[in-house]
Amino acid sequence: MELGSYSDQSKSTFSLADEDHTIANAVRFTLNQDPRVTFCGYSIPHPSDNRVNIRVQTTGDSAREVLKDACQDLMQMCQHVRSTFDKSVNDYKMSKTVKDMDIK
Amino acid sequence: MSSDEDESMSEQEEQTKSGKEDNGSVLDYIMSLESVPSKLPPHLELLKTRVLCKIDAPQHTDTIQYSGAYAALGVDNSIRLDNFRQNFKVQVNRLTEDDIEFDMIGIDPALANAFRRILIAEVPTMAIERIYMANNTSVIQDEVLSHRLGLIPIGADPRLFEYPENAGNEKNEKNTIVFKLHVRCERQQPRITVKSNELKWLPNGSELPSEDIKPNSSSKPKTFTSFSCSQDSLPEFSGNPIAPRNLDIILAKLGPGQEIELEAHAVKGIGRTHAKWSPVATAWYRMLPEVVLLKEVEDELAEELKNKCPVGVFDIEDIGKGRKRATVARPRSCTLCRECIRGGKEWEDRVALRRVKDHFIFTVESTGALPPEVLFTEAVKILEEKCERVITELS
Ligand code: SF4
């Protein structure tokens, strides 16, 4: 859910249901990396409310697009993390089997 | 080439570039100009990349995330994806059936922490959720026994099951695992201990009738589940029957004449709902410690320093003529107890304790449903799904 104004799309608050620090903090990180962002932050209005508000203010681009890009970036980072991790685990398993064979 | 020419050239170039290509390449071009420093001065670099652990408190603990944080210096602080791809590294140190330890280098704590939080609270597993108690004459109360049963890790791959919400309220072979437990201690016999190996898998679903059995009706009475086929006829389970992951967990003790008879239904869930669904015993990380000797520490002082550290970070090296010098041999095992900088200002000036902000020693201990390395990849996938959800919601 987006809370902003029609006349100025560069500032908006996005309210994500069923989310918490996990994604909000990670997205805040990628938003901060974007030079178009002048301000971003998040808050959890009430601890028993399953919701997080993310505030985005930009230099002019639509805040919605900027947040979407930030999520896209985060996703690509995750994909990279996953492939790197899988590769390292495979390397480790390989080297271990080789070592085990050496002992015999 | 005169400086005038130089300037007009670069202006032209800049214009043509911004005309044709996207923002990124202009930025790259600006960054490549000689007058723009590309690196921070060393003292700022230190504060950006290290936590300084001083005697009273750690300092500079935050990561500088904002892309324009060093704009006044002309240094770009944004991490672009290619940069991240180049610098990110994973190094596995230990991998066993139950746990993994790996170094994750070149990542912000915001992400590392997201992975940790997801591992603990959002990677699904199967856990016992409903108990149908037919008989319990043991000393352990129904609710306590039920709670104990809930916490038993089930050795079933949760990816092969669906959430119970997906099937309405129907309990079918895709979302429920049924176990039976029936133990009895005969009179005149010694007491017995009921362990988790007594939980027997019922691949055909529940055997308890859910309504009163009508006399002389020939049809089978309704049970608490409606399986359309037996689970062990499914290819995933035909070779490996489902059982608790550990077979020696004590559930109850029975005295002579006591008996427990119950049925336990396991469903899929996540740790945020209840910790019994958490797939990890623990998942944690610590930042890589860095111990630096700012001055040469020699002779008796070296001996003293070596003895100060309870985990043996320092070693002593011979530098000839009977003199000794302290060296940092095992910084990784530093627990940051700060014992080495205690004992006056002079020690604080000799030893610097730091943590590397983007180097995480990550440990995942699985409870057994999935191997630890799979858990981590699942966690990363879940974060990806979250992003996807936000993107579709915003489109
Ligand atoms: S902080 Fe503690 S563990 Fe670390 S080097 Fe100093 S004395 Fe050793």
UniProtKB/TrEMBL annotation, chain A:
Instruction: Please verify whether the record's keywords include Nucleus.
Output: yes
List all membrane-crossing ranges: none
Task: Cite a single GO BP annotation.
Answer: transcription by RNA polymerase III
Q: Which residues form the DNA-directed RNA polymerase RBP11-like dimerisation domain?
A: 12-83
Q: What is its main location?
A: nucleus
Tell me which GO cellular component terms the UniProt record holds. Answer: RNA polymerase I complex; RNA polymerase III complex
* Superkingdom of the source species: Eukaryota
The compartments listed are:
Nucleus
State the UniProt keywords alphabetically. Answer: DNA-directed RNA polymerase, Nucleus, Transcription
Supply the Pfam families for this chain: RNA_pol_L_2
- Gene Ontology molecular functions: DNA binding; DNA-directed RNA polymerase activity; protein dimerization activity
Question: Would you identify the family this protein belongs to, as annotated?
Answer: Belongs to the archaeal Rpo11/eukaryotic RPB11/RPC19 RNA polymerase subunit family.
Give the protein name, as stated in the record: DNA-directed RNA polymerases I and III subunit RPAC2
Organism the protein comes from? Senna tora
From TrEMBL, chain B:
Q: Which UniProt keywords apply?
A: DNA-directed RNA polymerase, Transcription
State the InterPro entries in the record.
Answer: DNA-dir_RNA_pol_insert (IPR011262), DNA-dir_RNA_pol_RpoA/D/Rpb3 (IPR011263), RBP11-like (IPR036603), RNAP_Rpo3/Rpb3/RPAC1 (IPR022842), RNAPI/III_AC40 (IPR033901), RNApol_insert_sf (IPR036643), Rpo3/RPB3_RNA_Pol_subunit (IPR050518)
Where are the membrane-spanning stretches?
A: none
Biased composition regions of type Acidic residues, renumbered to the chain: 1-13
Q: Name one GO cellular component term.
A: RNA polymerase I complex
UniProt feature, compositional bias: Basic and acidic residues: 14-23
Gene Ontology biological-process annotations: DNA-templated transcription
Task: Please give one Gene Ontology molecular function term for this protein.
Answer: DNA-directed RNA polymerase activity
Domain annotation DNA-directed RNA polymerase RpoA/D/Rpb3-type: ranges:
99-393
Q: What Pfam families does the database record attribute to this sequence? A: RNA_pol_A_bac, RNA_pol_L
Region feature (Disordered):
1-23, 203-225
Show the CDD domains listed in the entry: RNAP_I_II_AC40
Q: Which domain of life is it from?
A: Eukaryota
Under the heading HAMAP family, the entry gives:
RNApol_arch_Rpo3
Similarity comment: Belongs to the archaeal Rpo3/eukaryotic RPB3 RNA polymerase subunit family.
Q: Give the protein name, as stated in the record.
A: DNA-directed RNA polymerases I and III subunit RPAC1
Q: What species was this sequence derived from?
A: Senna tora
